[in-house]
Amino acid sequence: MFKIHSFIAGLCAASLCTAMITAHAEEDGVKRVEADTDSVRPLGRTYFMDDTLWLPNSASGVEFTASGSKAAFELTDQGDPSRIGIFVNGELREDKILEDYISTVEVELDPGENTVRFIKLSEAQYSTLGIDTIVLDKDAKIAPTKPKQRKLEFVGDSITCGYGVDMPMKDPVTGEYNKFSTDSEDVTKTYAYLTAEYFDADINIISASGYGVYCGYSGKLENTLTNWYERYSVDVFDPYYFSDGTSLEETNWDFSLYQPDCVVVNLGTNDWLYLKNHDNDAAFEASYNTLLTEVRQNNPNAVIICTVGLMGDELFDNIENAVNAYKEQTADEKIYTIKLNVIDPLSEGEAISGHPTEVSNRRAAETELIPFLENIMNWQELPEEPAQDTIAVVDEIITDEEVTDEDLTDEIEKTATLEEDISNSIPETVEIISSENQNSDEDSLKPDSLAFKILMGMAVFTVFGGIILLAKLRK
C-alpha cells in the first residue's frame, strides 16, 4: 500500500514541479524569476514597477525559500551606494556596498531547502534599490515564505535607520571626527530591528535621517514624517523615475498590504535641535497630533507607542501633552508613551555624529522597549515552529477526546478498505493512462488530462487519510 501511495504521490509531485518550472524563464542552464509575489514575499514598503521590485526603505526587501546551489540577485541602484544584506537560513552570508548602477550579488545555498532574506541595510533618502531578477539553478524551486504572526511598524529618524552605527564618532588613531557614508549604516543593529527579531515579528520601517514631526534638524518644515508617512518613501536626494514618470516619493503607500499590530513612533530628536532655539512648542504638539491622526486613520486596529530618547529626551513632556490631548479628543485608549534612556558615552560609546552604537540600541531594545511591548501587547517570545507543520495543523483539527482501542480498530479497518479500493483501481487507471499515451504521449499527464486528475485525487485522498490516522495514533 505504501509503495502505491509513494508512486502516486511521486507522479503528482513531478507533474506539479514541471508545471511550476515552466512558469519561469530558463536559459543557459539557470532559472530566472522576477521578484514578484509568485516567487517572493515582499518585506516593508516595496513597489513592483517596470518588472522590478523597488526597495526604498531600511529593512525593505524580499524573503523566499529556495533549493539549489546558489541564488544571485541582479540589481539596479540609484543614488548613493546602497548597503545590502543577504541572509541564508538566518545567517548573514553577504554584507555589501553596491558600487555600480547595475550589479549582481550571489550567495551560496545549503543542501535542501533554504530560507533566503535580502534586505536593504541603508536608508531611503540616499538611494533607491531595485531587484530586477533572481537567478537560481535550472531545477531549483522557489516560493514565498509565510508572513509572521506578529507585525510591527516603526516611524523614525536617523536612530531608526542605524545612521553611522558601524563607525565610532572619532577615528581611534587620528582622533578626527568620522564622516557618514552609507557603508556605516545598518538597520539590523537598531533597537527597532532587534525588537522585531526578539518577537519574531515582521517589520515595516519608514524613517529618514534629519527628519522630525514639526520640522527637520535644520528647521525645514518639509522634512517631517508628518508629510511623508503616507508615501512609499521620504524625499530622495537622487530619485529614480519610472517609465510612467512617477517616483516612489510621489506614490501613496497601500496600507491594506500591511496592517501592523503595533506602530512605534520615535521622533522629536531633530525637532529639538531647532526648537531649543525657537520657542514653538505649541506647533510641535499640533504637528504631533496630525501625525497621530494619520497613523490611526491608516492603522485602525494597531496599538501606537510614542517614544523619544537615546540622543535626547527634551521633548518627551510635549509628546505626552500631544498624546493626552489626542486621547481626550478621540477617546482612543490604544496609545502609550515611553521615554528611552539617553546614550551613556562612557559605557556605550558613540557612533558618527553622536548617534547610538549597537550597544546602545541593544540596551534600549532589551531593557526598555521589549519589556514594555511584552506588557502592553501581552507578547512573549514565540516558541519555535513545529518540525512537521502538516501534522501540527491536523492535531489542532482533531479533538482532545481520548482515542480508544475501538476507535483505532475502526481507523485501521477504514485504511484497509482504502488500500483495497486503490489496489482495485490501479488496473483501470493504468488502462486509462495507456489509452491516453497512445493518443498523445505529451498530453497524458498534463493538469487537464483525465489521468492526471485521477492520480491527483487518489494521492490527496490517500495522503490526507494517512495523516489523520497518524495524528490520532500520536494522541
Distance between the termini: 24 Å
SS summary, helix count: 12
Question: Could you tell me the number of beta strands?
Answer: 18
Secondary-structure class: alpha+beta
Q: How many domain units?
A: 3
Task: Give the SSE order as H and E letters.
Answer: HEEEEEEEEEEEEEEHHEHEHHEHEHHHHH
Radius of gyration, in Å, reads 27 Å
Annotated CATH homologous superfamily of the largest domain: SGNH hydrolase
- Percentage of helical residues? 25-40%
Low-confidence stretches: 1-23, 387-403, 429-447, 460-464, 467-475
Shape: globular
Which CATH-level-2 architecture of the largest domain? 3-Layer(aba) Sandwich
Q: Give the CATH class of the largest domain.
A: Alpha Beta
For this structure, the CATH topology of the largest domain is Rossmann fold
Largest sheet: 7 strands, antiparallel
- Hey, roughly how much beta strand do the residues contain? 15-25%
Please, what is the average pLDDT? 84
